[in-house]
Amino acid sequence: MIVRARAPFRLGLAGGGTDVSPYMDEYGGAVLNATIASHAWVTLRSGGSEVVLESADTGLSARYPATGSPMPRDGVLDLVKAVHDRIVREFHHGRPLPLTIQTYSEAPPGSGLGSSSTLVVALIQAYEELLKLPLGEYDIARLAFQIEREDMALAGGRQDQYAAAFGGFNFMEFTAGERVIVNPLRIKPDTVRELEARMLVCFTGVSRESARIIEDQRSNVLAGVQKSIDAMHNLKANAVAMKEALLHGDLDGMAEVLREGWQSKRAMAAGISNSHIEELWDIAAESGAYAGKVSGAGGGGFMMFFCPLEKKPTIISRLEARGCRVAAVVFTAEGANAWSVR
Asked: Which residue of 114, 204, 300, 309 sits 20 to 30 Å from the alpha carbon of 155, by its own alpha carbon?
């Protein structure tokens, strides 16, 4: 039996960082994000006597006897192993589950698009189809969060898993006790098309700073650093303001919120911005961009820009001359899904 699954990456439009503990636990968080037509892919092939792992984008692979016991964590596709081990333990009664697990990500790790979480969601969605598990979007997102943050102790927030599972434009609310409410937004098609006309994303380089930035953010809240806490309060308010602007089709208002949000995000922790990011923003602004921010924790990854459609060729040309990969934005309303291959 062959099962295939995919899940979309997301752009964080406002509120990113307020979905991270301990801020979320004490004050509650709010995030507005949207999924784009770029995906993490998974193929499961049943049969044999081993668990075979293959990553098409990294070239890494590994194989282990299918015993039902946890596979070793040795730095080779450990996140994929963690998903398989959790599924075997929780949904397969610890019995061996021989599979070939093939993955392919259209965005690199550390991109700021939630790539690791999106891959985990796609993996769980594939197992849901293979084993006919009774898992809905909330269940899949919650399980993905537990595997990443608890089983693997990876730093990060909560928005990525829910964005990948649900898809579309979502206003998400986070409160203590792991309570998450996903509010899908009904955006007018003309607004979505105009957003696509005005937006660009630019890959600045893989971020290797995200874990440290998130830990700095956590430490600042625990230590009561008021500048950081006030910045997060502002980001949460930005998410509400972004939602209102988006629902009303006010793209100039969205750009203003984006500008304000980037200023607040810079104040959360050291390393969110750096000289390379500031240089790229200056280049884009000089070429016609009028708003922008980093997607994700910061330090690198993708930047997004608002710009006039007629200015896009110049902005693209100048950013590519600095070695960046620039792409158009195409939104998708579809979340994670899986199907059997006949």
From this structure: 204
